[in-house]
Structure formats: C-alpha cells, structure tokens
Queue: 2 jobs
Job 1
Amino acid sequence: MPSRPAGESQRPGVRRGGAQYERIHGDLARAAAAALARRGYGDLSPEAVASEAGVSPRTAFRHYPTKLDLALAGIDALPDYSGWLEEVVAGESMADRLRRGLLVGAGHDELLAPVMATCLSHRDEQPELLLQLRRRVLKPRERAIGAFLEEGKVRGEIREAVGSTAMSALDVGLFMMGGLGQFPLGRGRRRAQRLFEQIWPVICAPGHEDD
Amino acid sequence: MPSRPAGESQRPGVRRGGAQYERIHGDLARAAAAALARRGYGDLSPEAVASEAGVSPRTAFRHYPTKLDLALAGIDALPDYSGWLEEVVAGESMADRLRRGLLVGAGHDELLAPVMATCLSHRDEQPELLLQLRRRVLKPRERAIGAFLEEGKVRGEIREAVGSTAMSALDVGLFMMGGLGQFPLGRGRRRAQRLFEQIWPVICAPGHEDD
C-alpha cells in the first residue's frame, strides 16, 4: 500500500475532482454508511466496502486511507434534512411539507438508528465518530427542524410550545424505536405515513389536526 | 469450571434464593448493566463484572453461566418506569407526578442510551439482547407512559393528541440525544428538570403549561 496521503496520487484516468473520482468517492461513502449500519464500526471492513462499491481495495484506500476516514465519510452520507425539509413549495401547508420531507427520507433513513448506535457504542475509543455524527447529521437536522417549526409557528400551523429539541427528540426517538423493533416503521410510503401520524398531531396547532 | 447449570450448585452458606444469593445476584446484574453501557456487549467481560460486583469469577459463573446470561440480567436491571410513573400520590398534579418520576430515574437512567445502542449494534449476531430490551425495558416503559397519559387525559391535564408511542419516542429520543452529546442532560435534579422542560410543554393540555 502506498504511504503517501490519499488524494496526492495522480494515476492517469482518475483525476481527483473529476466526475469519475467524485462518483467513486460518493459510492464508497454510501457503501460505508450501509456497512456501518449493518455491521457497526468494530466490524467495518474497508475491503468489503470497496467490493460493495465495485472498486478495488487499492482504489478505496486512495479515497479513504483509514477505516476511520471511511466511517466518517459514511456518517457524512446520512440524510440530514437539509434542502428537503427547508425547501418551500408555493401553496403547501406545513403538514404537506412534512409529508413530502418524510417521503424523501423514507428511502434511506433506515441507516440512522444503527449508525447512531455504533457511534455511541464507540464513543470512548473513537470519539470522532460521535463528533462527526453530531456535526454533520444531528445538528443540521435540528437546524432544519428549527427553521421548519419557526415558519410553522409564524403561519399559525404549529404550536408555540414545540421546540426544536423536543421535535428532534421525537425524530431521533421514532427512528430508534423503529431500529429497535419497538415501533414498526415499515418502508417507503408506509414509513413516511407512520412517521407523519406520530409527529403531526403532537406538533400541530389547534385546528390543523386534519391537515 | 463446573458443567452443571447455574443455580443447581448447593455450596454451603450460599443458599439459592437466600438473602445473600439475591444480593449477589442483583449486584452482578447492576454491574453488568454498567459494563454493557460503558464497553458494549462485544467487550463485556464476566471477570471484570465479577470484580466490579466484589465476587469471584467462579461465583459470577454460578449466577450467570454465560456472557449472554450476564448481559440479559444487565438489561433487566435498567429502569423501566414501573411503579414510580404509575404510582399515584394523592393531590399530585400530572406535572408533579412526571417531575417526581423523572427525579427517581435521574440517578440511573444514563445507562439507557448506551445499552440501547449496544443491543441495536448486536441485533444480528445476538438478537436476544434486543428482545430482552424490548420485553423488559421498552414495553414496560411504554405501558407506564400509556397509563400516565390516559389518566392525564381523563383529568384534562394532558392533550388528547399525545399517544404513548409519541411520548415514548420523545423519552427514548431525549435519552439518545443526551447519550450522543447532542442535548446536555446533566445529572440528578438538573437532569430531571431538563427532561421535564422538554416533555411537559409538548404533552400538557391548554391551561396547564405552568403546572
């Protein structure tokens, strides 16, 4: 294995920053997220992640030189609510926006609970995992939730009493209960609907229960 | 190590079911819960748990013959809300009861998030951990929460829209966010107060905000 840092190698045909490089970089990160969720950080195998992403271990190493780099990239690939929960569509109610957001997330949010779990389990020997999770996933989600709540309150569709910490806890808790098998989240459209049914009645202002 | 199952041994002086046996049995379970929270199931060491509980590895083995038995006992020792959230004190408001319950739990509930995490991380190779967590911790908590909400609704102090799944998610989510360092739970009385400040405004009926 080369001892130079990743990114400094300049093999012909795979220009760093080029389209192919970016595609492989992203594929590896998504494969790392799935592997982290399935096996946890302890059993994360860069070789298996490379194979899952359809590249050689050597190529994977050039993108992410250590197991930790790969894990951090995997965490970074988790859904963070930015864009889709903050995005405003004209004429949409807050309930519609929440439904739309949950539906976008329903395709890939099943990674969240197991990745949170492995970050927490390895908090002592690998604290970077938890820091990355907070910085790149939990805080952006809480910010997006905060902006969503704020607009909903201005519009009178969301109760003043609901804060971004409480709604984040509801969000994190539902995913954890789903991951723990304590609440049957299901998949896809069904999953988005189940999440909506739990979240909306708790946060909506009087008169918006049936939005 | 003896090959007979634990509990069948009859060493003089440690009668199974006797006070000393029960005390050691409980000490080992509590030490196992703390070890599970600190190190996770993968690194759970029966020898270290025995040492923590102040008994020999041989004695620990007689109580819990396998690492899994010890882990299951540890999970069983987690706070399950039974008794203290369900208990009714005359003249107490629902807000008071919640405050009292959270204060009782504030001494030992910091184990919940990391134990949930390790049960989830080991769901494939050791599914008994997750089953035990659901059966002995999550379901009893949800039942106690359900009874609490039901009485609060009858008394008009809790909003009809709040269900036991949503409040359980809020509960699980706050502990997870605390464990992940995303919400500063703190300890003891401060911890109980922080949890109360997040939970009560979300669940209380109009007019009970300042209970």
Job 2
Amino acid sequence: MAYRKTPAELDRLAAAREHLVERATAVVADVGWANASVTAVAAAAGMSVGSVYQHFPSKGALAVEVFRRASGREVEVLGEVLREGGRDPVERLALGVGVFARRAMESRGLAHALLAAPAEPAVGEERLLFRGRYREVFAEVIREGIGAGVLPGQDPDVTAAALTGAIGEVLVDPLSAPAEGDAADRLVTELVAMSLRCAGAAPAH
Amino acid sequence: MAYRKTPAELDRLAAAREHLVERATAVVADVGWANASVTAVAAAAGMSVGSVYQHFPSKGALAVEVFRRASGREVEVLGEVLREGGRDPVERLALGVGVFARRAMESRGLAHALLAAPAEPAVGEERLLFRGRYREVFAEVIREGIGAGVLPGQDPDVTAAALTGAIGEVLVDPLSAPAEGDAADRLVTELVAMSLRCAGAAPAH
C-alpha cells in the first residue's frame, strides 16, 4: 500500500519546491547555468543536495523549471503590453519592445541566461519553444497593424520571427557587460527604432 | 625520448582527421548533434571508436571542430558577397542575405545544426563567437550604406546584431520542415525584404 501524504505535507512540499525554484533562479542569475550546480543551489536554498533531488530528478529538470518560470513571466508581460487597449498596433509594438528590453537590462544576469547563455540541451529545447511564444505575440500585433493599414504588406510570421531573433541578439552583449544608464537608454531607443523599421512602420511615427 | 612521427605519418594522420571531420559533418547534418554519437561517427568514417579519440579528445571537441569548419565556410561566403565590388551596399546586403538563406535551405540539416539546434555548451560557446563574426560583416556593409547615404542614420552594430539574430530565427522552422520549392523562394524573398526594411533601405530600391 502506497504511503499517502496528508494535505499539510503536500502544502509543505509545494512551498519547499517553490522556495527551491526561486533560490535556483537567483543562483542562475548570479553565476549562470554552468556554475549553478545542485550543490550551489542547495546551499542557496538552505537544503541538502538530497532534498533538491526529492523535488527534481536532475539538475537539468530543475534548470528547465527555472527557465520555464522566468521566461513565462517575460512573455506574459510582453503579450500584455502588445495587446493593451487604447493604443494603435505600432505604438504597442514600440512599447512592448521597450518594456522587454528595459526589464532585461534590469535583470541582466537572468536575462542573459534566458536569452543567450549556452545551456544544457534540455534548456535549449525549452528556449526554442519559448521563442515560438514570442513569435506568436509579435505576429498578432503585426497582423493587426497590417489590417489597420499602419504597417505595409508582409508575412507577419517572418517579421515576428525576425523580431524575436533580432531583439535577443541585440541584447546578448549589453546583458553581459556592466550596466551604464545612458548607454542602456540609447540601446533601448535604437532597439525600438530598429524593430519599427523591421516591421515597416513609417519612421516619423 | 619521445617517439617522433615521420612526415609521411603526419600526412596520413592529417588526411585521416580531415576525412573524420567531413564524415562527422555529414552525420550531424543527417541526424543532428544529439544523435551524432562517437560510435555513429566512427562507423560513418570507417574507423574504430578508439581512432576517433586519437584525433579528438572528446565528442565535444569533435563537435566544435565540425561547427567551426562549417560555420567558417558560411560566414566567409557571406562576407565575400557583402564586400563584392561593383554593387552598392544595399544591393550587396540583399544579395548576401539571399545567398545565405538559399545555401541554408539547400543544406537544411547542417544549417539547422549550425544555427539553432540545441547542442552541448561547447558548441553553444562557439555559436556565440560565430554570431560575432556575422555581426561584423553585416555592420561593415551597413556602415558603408550610411556613409554612402543609401541607408538612414542608425547604430550599425545594433542593426547588424538584429540581422544576425533575425535571419537565424526566421530560418529555424523552415530548416526543420521538408523542402518545398515555391515556399522556399517566397521565404527568401520575405527574408530579404525584412532585412532591407530592418536596415532602413527605401522599399522601392
């Protein structure tokens, strides 16, 4: 007969797992995927290595959960800005790219890990899936812009993929360099301008 | 006293290494990084697993060499087209993106492995370095275009990074789908148009 956990035990387990994922995310942000060993994560979470493995079967499974959680938050924020009522699609695109880039520049370590840093293949697979979600939210606003006549005819899926790849690549180097206020502002301005050009928005917009 | 190899032995070793890298590249193109085991590569090269390890200390080292060789060829071809005399910078940019995309579509398996497929971290590191080389060749032609007054003012490094990321991301899905003549042509056309917009080239160019 299998041992059944009580509701209180299940709650404690869920809270411990949550705490572990949060601490692991902080470790990844600090030292990157390669150095975020189970030992380092266990120490940061105030747990034994054995307890970490009670929650996740492998370092890879924990890394995937960290990636999924943090990337999920970013794509959600971007989607909300891109769909926000009361603004035209081009404004929303500019705002969305700006918000995404500023959030990345404010959490450089984590953003670098999510967007670009070499990671184990399981995280790489997850990254491909998330890039698909970014593409979807961009394609939606571009399609709307074409429909509204504020963007020229184009394949919205190609431009959406282009923006997804472009924004990630533009941010790679700045995310691994030390923060500088003015340089960061100029970069965000350039990135937004490039994104609008890429989608064919009129420059004067 | 160390045993010295004769010139004839060194030649044979170099030829065997060359053959091994070529066969390994074909295996990666066929089955991807994850399935390109040392056993599979050894079989394809008609060598023993032990001989493979005489040439490369690890699967990772062989993978890096395969990556470096194949990516080196692509960035060289792109650089040549982007620098070709007798054409203006915008024409060269359009031609370069078109040539790059067509070459990728003609060697889908390999291009997918080079551009996007999750791979071990050592290959990921190498990919970041090569993206830097792509950025340099794009930045050069964009800078030239701005100087010649055929491209608007912009940070050439941002646009170059954007193009590098954009082109890779646009090609990911098509490279993993079966080849279709017309669809491939349309994709290349869209990709070139997007790249020109991204750099701010006048649409009628």
